[in-house]
Structures are given as C-alpha cells and as structure tokens.
Amino acid sequence: MLDRIKQLLITVPKDGAIYLAEKLSQRTGFFITNGHLLYLVANFEGISHTSFTTDYLLLNTNVDIQSFENNQLFPSGKYNILEFLPTEQGYEENKLESFLNLCVSHTEYMGGKSFVKFFFSLSELFQDPKAQQFKNLIGLFGELSFLKHMASKHNVDLSFHWHKGGSRDKYEISLEDINIEIKTTAAIDEEVTIKHTQLFNADQNYLVVVCVEETAAGQTLNQLISSMLFDQTHFKNYNFVLNIEREKRRVSPVEANRKTFSVKVINLYDATIINPFDSIPGCVSQLTYKLDLVEKECVPDN
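The structure corresponding to this sequence follows.
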C-alpha cells in the first residue's frame, strides 16, 4: 500500500477535489486532495464539529462532503477527517508508513470508533522531539518579540498579518507589498540558516534577525504572551489569538513557563542587499546554507 499511496500523491490531480486512494471498510478509507493524504471515517458516532492541528496532523470532524471524485463507494454525508501534513520537502517515508499502518489498525481493531481519541494518540507519536521543541520555543519567542518591538517603538501592529495562513506560511509576516521572514538565534554571532529561494526571489522580502540569550533576568515565553494579550492597544484580533494557541502546541509547556530569555538585538535586512549570490545555476534546487550577517547593512530602526 505504501508504494501505491506514494505514487498517487504524485499523480492525483491537484484540483481541490477529494480522490479515493484506498478503501479500508464501508465507512473508512484513505483519500488524497491537493497532494495531501487524508484518512476519512464516516461520522457514525455523531461527533460535533471540531478542528485541531499539530506539526503533522490536522483534525476536522463532522465535515459535510457532498461527493467524491473517481469513486461512488462512499456516499455524500458527514465525515471525520484526519489530514497528514507534509513538510516542505514532502512526506518522510517512515512517518508516512507509520501513519498508514496506524490508520489501518484503527479501522481493523476499532472499526473507526473513538476518532478524536485516536487523533490525540497519533499527535503524541508525531510530535516534535525535545530538541525541535526548544528550537520552536526560541523561534516563537523571537517572532513575538519582533511584533512587540514594532508595536511599542513604532506603533505598528503586525499581528493580523502574522502567520495569516497558518504556521506553515512561506513567510512569518505577509503584507500587501512586502514579506518578512523572521529568524531567531541564540548564537554569539549573527549567523542564520537561509533557504535561498524562499528569501531571494521576485518578491519584496525582508529578513528580521532576533538575537536572544537565555538569562535569569529575562522573561518566559508565557510571560511575553501574557504581556501582549493584555496590551490594551495592540494585538486585538482573532488571527493573533488563534496563532498563539497553535504555536504554543509546538513547544514544551514546561519550558514555555520556565526558560527565560532576553532580546539582545533585533536587526532588519533588505533581502536585495544581503543576497550573497549574483545567480544560482538552474541545476541547483532547494539550496540551504548558513549566512553570516555580522558585516551586512541593516535597515535603520527609526
């Protein structure tokens, strides 16, 4: 089944329709839409609508689906959907295989029952490891520190544009004319990892580098979030609150309440100025590298 699903993920049209990939039972199966793998179970349990997301999984229950493409084995009706989210590089084969095996077992041994409980059991297995959780903690602290800096110093509230399309947006902040990529580093030197085509392309892009240090005199992520949520002037929109809750789930709740950080400096760079390459050969793709910004010119913070 793994090889068949991998092939279908490539060949199935990305037209927004839902295509049957593998029928598991009369009410469960694997489907594909826009290159994403779905595990669908008819909502015979009468679960009310809910939505929940993790790094790799998206849960939506009691979704009305009117028709399926290329197969009429599943009638229109209410379905519970577990979407397996790919990374920028696609699906990791070992994670894809594990997801398939667990969903098949859910059908075989549980008959598709306890769908929400099944989702949470998978979310624990597919959650980021501790090192990644700490990296997410640093990243979120830096992003929020930049938002707070712009609001307090420049009276500019960017929170509505922060991850407006979700945590997997191409850029952290997308405005009408410009995009802002935010990198947070706890290193001594200002060196950050760059995905070349993400930052250096035809768009008008800016890079923000937030340098932080772990110190007892700093504040925790939860303290930073609280100060922003209780701000009487800024950050008063649903998009910000939604993304706070989404991003908090990607970090350790213990470290979010215990690790304290201080911001050393926030620097803004124009991508057209700091691009280290005049051109990239067409045979090179997915170029990622470390970029030292110590001697690069910053945009004045005034």
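Residues 180 and 206 are 5 Å apart (CA to CA).
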